[in-house]
Design a protein that fits this description.
single chain, 7-stranded antiparallel beta sheet
Length: about 475
């Protein structure tokens, strides 16, 4: 609808004390936002949002903002919903007012439409199977991206997939790029259109010797010497609505591609990776993510070591015979990257909501300052918590409470917890200058004292 987090989060207005905003009104506002375009569109969207949010309570404002940027989780997995649509179509077929559909056909249609709800409308129509069968790949229409399973090592991944393309896993932002003639669309992993924010990427795609193409890849922030910029620098420009063309000669966003799904009128999505890779090598060799084709575990591990030494996340190991299973975590793609674990100290905890109401859930985590022997906050997490861990920490942290504002409880820094992270990034929010990336709970360590916790210097060194 043309609104992202930057716009939604900066809007401030008087909040309503009592709820009055209706679902229909919210839907109407979203429809108006989606229809706004042309000169003055940013101001027009701001006005619609301000009018809407001025009638919302604080909780409703938070919900609407998260709804806009796709961060609302309502509890039903896509796979479960897909199966439910198939079941519903089967019931209608038995009643004589519909046709049975196949799960595979629905999955493929949702993949090619980039939207399960649109596929559901077709599936539950008067001629579901035929309507789904007519859905094809279209340039300029987003396709659900293929995802990868995880392997603990490159050699394990090779053992699982056999002859594979071992590619650097870049620490960038996933993009899907479409071009037809001079018209280019750049979409995020969630299929949000960010074309206007990435003029550098558009320029690269327009330079390719093609008429029509769909590419899958990553965008990286690079400095003047082609060195990697921190991930948050990439996302800062990537996520800025209405960003002007980048005029900073020390910073550019550069696309690197690892797959091609369509090329000059020919759909390649059903071709094996070997065919797709060959096509990509022909049209974009200078923008190809480095890869080595091998079934040798040692050579795969060497590729992993090289990628890590250059500052990348790890490698992707992809079967050369594998097909592009859009929207699914395919078995033919394996991601391999190191996982770091550290012993940190719990500094505070937030009360849970939803299914976790009545528990203490979101943890505030601290690392030890070896100079002052105090603890420096480095992030929060509620991920990885089992029901048993929730029960344990609710009781243990309640006993350690030193203050309570009704939402966050600060506690004595006595409880050590083992946290897994993918790395750290620079932060101006936390006093230590670092923030954890993708932190999740492994286990509590009652056998460890706070004085043995990992230091802020150890985490800073990861930068």
């Amino acid at each position: 609808i043309g609104v992202g987090w930057a716009t939604a989060s900066k809007l401030t207005s008087v909040r309503a004390e009592d709820p009055s905003l209706m679902i229909g009104e919210l839907d109407d506002a979203f429809a108006r936002l989606a229809a706004i375009s042309g000169p003055g569109s940013v101001a027009s969207r701001d006005e619609v949002l301000r009018s809407l949010l001025s009638r919302a309570t604080e909780i409703e404002v938070d919900f609407v903002r998260r709804l806009i940027v796709g961060e609302v989780r309502q509890g039903a997995l896509g796979g479960v919903m897909t199966a439910a649509i198939v079941a519903a179509a089967a019931i209608r077929s038995e009643r004589g007012d519909g046709s049975a559909i196949k799960l595979a056909a629905l999955r493929r249609a949702a993949m090619l439409l980039g939207d399960l709800s649109s596929a559901a409308e077709l599936a539950l129509g008067t001629d579901g199977p035929a309507a789904l069968a007519e859905v094809g790949l279209q340039v300029l229409r987003g396709v659900e991206p293929m995802l990868a399973a995880t392997s603990v090592s490159a050699s394990e991944a090779i053992a699982d997939v056999g002859l594979a393309s071992v590619e650097w896993k870049l620490d960038g932002a996933r993009v899907q790029v479409h071009r037809r003639g001079e018209h280019v669309r750049v979409l995020t992993r969630n299929l949000n259109d960010v074309t206007d924010r990435l003029p550098d990427v558009v320029a690269v795609v327009l330079s390719l010797p093609v008429e029509s193409v769909i590419l899958d890849g990553e965008v990286l922030g690079l400095d003047a010497d082609a060195g990697l910029r921190p991930f948050q620098d990439t996302m800062a420009r990537f996520g800025t609505e209405g960003a002007a063309p980048n005029t900073d000669p020390t910073f550019r966003l550069h696309p690197y591609f690892f797959d091609v799904l369509h090329l000059d009128g020919v759909d390649l999505i059903d071709e094996p990776l070997a065919v797709r890779s060959a096509a990509l090598d022909r049209i974009a060799p200078a923008h190809r993510i480095p890869a080595v084709v091998t079934d040798d575990p040692e050579r795969a591990e060497a590729a992993l070591a090289e990628a890590l030494a250059l500052g990348h996340e790890g490698v992707m190991v992809k079967s050369v015979d594998g097909h592009y299973e859009a929207g699914r975590r395919g078995k033919s793609w394996r991601k391999v990257k190191p996982v770091y674990t550290y012993d940190l100290v719990v500094l505070g905890v937030e009360r849970g909501n939803g299914r976790r109401k009545g528990t203490l859930s979101n943890l505030h985590l601290g690392a030890r300052d070896a100079v002052t022997d105090e603890f420096v906050m480095v992030g929060k997490t509620f991920k990885g918590l089992t029901d048993d861990l929730l029960a344990f920490q609710t009781e243990a942290l309640s006993a350690l409470a030193i203050s309570d504002d009704g939402y966050t409880i600060m506690v004595r820094p006595e409880l050590v917890i083992e946290i897994a992270i993918d790395g750290v990034q620079r932060s101006t929010r936390y006093p230590g200058g670092v923030a954890l990336r993708f932190a999740r709970v492994k286990r509590y360590r009652p056998d460890r004292s706070p004085g043995s916790a990992d230091t802020i210097a150890t985490l800073q060194a990861l930068l």
